[in-house]
Every structure is written in C-alpha cells, then in structure tokens.
Amino acid sequence: LLLYHSPDKHPRITDAEWSLVLAETVPAAKASAVSWRQLAQYPQMWGLMAARFVSDPVWWFYLFWLPKYLVEQRGFTMVELMVVIGIAAVLAAVAAPALQGTVNNFRQKSALSLLVSDLNQARGEAIKRNSRVLMCVRNAAGTGCDASTNWLSGWVACLDANADGACDAASASSPNPFIVRPALSAVLTATVVDAAASAQGSLRFNPNSTQGAGNSAVTLTLGGTWTGAVSHTVTVAGTGNISSR
Fold this sequence. Notes:
Layout (H helix, E strand, L loop, with lengths): L14 H9 L12 H4 L3 H30 L5 H52 L3 E5 L17 E5 L19 E2 L7 E6 L8 E4 L12 E7 L7 E5 L5 E3 L1
Antiparallel strand pairs: 1-2, 1-5, 2-3, 4-6, 6-7, 7-8
C-alpha cells in the first residue's frame, strides 16, 4: 500500500494515459437495496446461516475459550501453547494429502455413478421412444455433440431419429438433448474406446436396446491424476448391457 497509487493520483501518469483510463472505465451499476424479506426467499442464505450457526461456536471455542482455559486453569504458558499449535499444524499438514485423496476419490465415484446412471437412462429412452439415442462429448454450448473425444468436458444424451450422428432439433414438447452434464473435475481422466482401442467421442443406443452395430463393446475408463488413483471401467456391450467395475 505504501508503493501503490491510484491512477488519478500517480505522480508519473501522463494526460494521454489518464484519458485512456477514463475512456475504458465502465460506469459502475447502481446497486439496489435488498431487504431481509427478499434474502429470506433464497435457500442459499438459510444454508449459509445454518453453516455459520454450527461452525462459529466451534471456532470460538478453539480460538478463545480453550487457550484462556489452558493458561488460567492449567498453568500453560504461551510458549507451550505455541508448541501445541505447531504440533497440530504439522499433523494437519501430514493429514492434508490423505484428505485430498479422499475428496478426489469421492469425486471419482460420484462421476462414475452419474455416468452409469446416464447410460442407463439413454438406453431406456431409446427403447421408450423407439428411436436412436446418442451419448456424446458435449459442445461448449451444451446443445449437441462435439467433434472431440475429451469426455472431461462433459457429455449430453440426445435423440438422433434421422440417424445422422447428430442431435435432432429440440421442440417445446421434446427438449433435446434431454441430458446435459457439465465438465468433470480436472483431477479426473476419462476415455472411451471401442473394441479396436480407438478413442470415441460418442456412442449410440438403438430402439432394440443394442449399442452401436450390436456386435462389439465400448469401454469407458474413469481414472485420476493423483497419487494412488484407481481407474474404474464401464463396459457397454453390443447387446446394450451396462456393467461397471
């Protein structure tokens, strides 16, 4: 802060530079007042209040009551307290990687469960609507298939009644795609290959419940980039049967 100057007070700014700053300045929108009644309509606010209600007493206990108790009632000195805090910090640093691995494993299992669920839904829709259904890498807008094979960018499931390998146009009575998933976490890896080990950006289910041409399987592998990550595979047989391990 001692070395920082706002542009209008900087001793070395020229008139031309200041004019350029003013020309590119976007006027700030006037903020409208929000009442407590309006805030009460948002579930996020109640979630935040509930979280603070539960967590704040815990933090208050550890930051204020416990040090005061240890010093006044147990005769601890500030040096001893700092040693304890240092040991706790070291233990936390050691436990952090393991905790991060647990979080990553949870992300992977959640993505795997979602993928299997969407595959089953896509197959069911193909049977119910008597139409081909695609499940493919989503495009940036989430409105159809992308040409890439990067399943980390998310996927969509859509009707392809005209069998042109692309999502059919949507209508008010028939939204398409009917499944749109966002990008997966960057710590995950996702690949889809056919029986010849060739990367695929899409797979299809047919009205008779089969997959693709009905004579070969497609394997989806969901792995991770962290140490100790275990890859999980989902196999979609030519018959359409979906299994995971």
